[in-house]
């Protein structure tokens, strides 16, 4: 798997790196970390990155303005994106002109798209998979690349708390820190928030629901986001693990209303929440998944499904 990817990186000169819509740090860290890796080891190669960049994650790096002509004869590397419908690209037809499409991912491989698939769901983060690729192939790792990959690794494991974290995960984190990037600054970039958002976190902890079955959840409306001056509902949805610290919570969910739909983030300690997500326009890992619905009545159906799973 890694040998094939290395061969592709060595043999081709024109790359475009994409990732999923509404990106998190694993998507952006793997995308921009892979770009940095290519720049460090193969400086003569052309590397472009694309997709919409949330304002609050702009500290990670910048995107290029891709055009259809860029895809002709390019190798397209798509990181951290389980399905084709989630690829952040203006026009999916542009992929048809690419020389090669390579899927690099850690989600269950249900949508087997691409000419080459570098996919392994045993990794809790795509950034860990890429770090293992680097260590296995002895590629040069710069502080910049290590910093980017660490952002994805630490966030997708929720600071190494998930059950999917293994001895390998810590070994990969150690390898990244050996590159001597500023670890304290990395944590500040991810976790430091402005006072308004801190107050929103306080609201969540004061207003969540915990059922007798062990389901913890909170509903965040557009009006509530406006009250706390929270501009990105997708960022707020990723706070779901605030509820994971509640004693007695076996499954925890965040419902956050955006302009077009209600985003749902599921987490659990042991229960297969991806089974619920798959029924509501979503999917993911067994204990970490996402979905979306279009009205609050559907949210009640999600709550019913989760309650049934817990019984």
From TrEMBL:
GO terms for molecular function: nucleic acid binding. Gene3D superfamilies: 3.10.310.30, inorganic pyrophosphatase (n-terminal core). Pfam families: DHH (PF01368), DHHA1 (PF02272). It comes from Spiroplasma syrphidicola EA-1. Residues 232-310 form the DHHA1 domain. The lineage of its organism: Bacteria, Bacillati, Mycoplasmatota, Mollicutes, Entomoplasmatales. This is Phosphoesterase RecJ domain-containing protein. Residues 15-152 form the DDH domain.
């Amino acid at each position: 798997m890694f040998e094939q990817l290395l061969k592709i990186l060595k043999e081709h000169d024109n790359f475009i790196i994409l990732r999923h819509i509404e990106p998190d740090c694993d998507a952006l860290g793997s995308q921009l970390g892979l770009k940095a890796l290519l720049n460090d080891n193969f400086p003569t190669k052309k590397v472009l990155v694309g997709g919409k960049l949330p304002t609050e994650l702009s500290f990670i790096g910048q995107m290029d303005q891709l055009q259809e002509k860029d895809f002709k004869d390019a190798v397209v590397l798509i990181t951290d994106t389980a399905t084709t419908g989630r690829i952040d690209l203006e026009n999916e037809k542009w992929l048809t002109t690419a020389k090669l499409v390579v899927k690099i991912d850690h989600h269950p491989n249900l949508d087997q798209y691409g000419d080459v698939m570098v996919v392994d769901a045993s990794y809790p983060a795509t950034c860990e998979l890429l770090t293992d690729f680097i260590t296995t192939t002895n590629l040069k790792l710069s502080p910049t690349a290590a910093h980017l990959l660490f952002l994805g690794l630490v966030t997708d494991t929720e600071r190494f708390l998930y059950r999917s974290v293994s001895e390998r995960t810590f070994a990969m984190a150690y390898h990244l820190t050996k590159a001597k990037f500023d670890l304290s600054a990395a944590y500040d970039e991810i976790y430091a928030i402005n006072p308004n958002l801190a107050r929103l976190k306080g609201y969540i902890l004061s207003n969540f629901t915990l059922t007798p079955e062990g389901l913890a959840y909170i509903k965040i409306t557009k009006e509530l986001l406006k009250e706390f001056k929270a501009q990105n509902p997708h960022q707020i949805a990723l706070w779901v693990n605030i509820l994971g610290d509640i004693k007695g919570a076996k499954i925890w969910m965040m419902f956050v209303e955006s302009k077009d739909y209600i985003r749902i983030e599921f987490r659990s300690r042991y229960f297969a929440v991806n089974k619920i997500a798959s029924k509501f326009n979503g999917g993911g890992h067994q204990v970490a998944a996402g979905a979306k619905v279009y009205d609050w009545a559907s949210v009640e159906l999600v709550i019913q499904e989760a309650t049934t799973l817990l019984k």
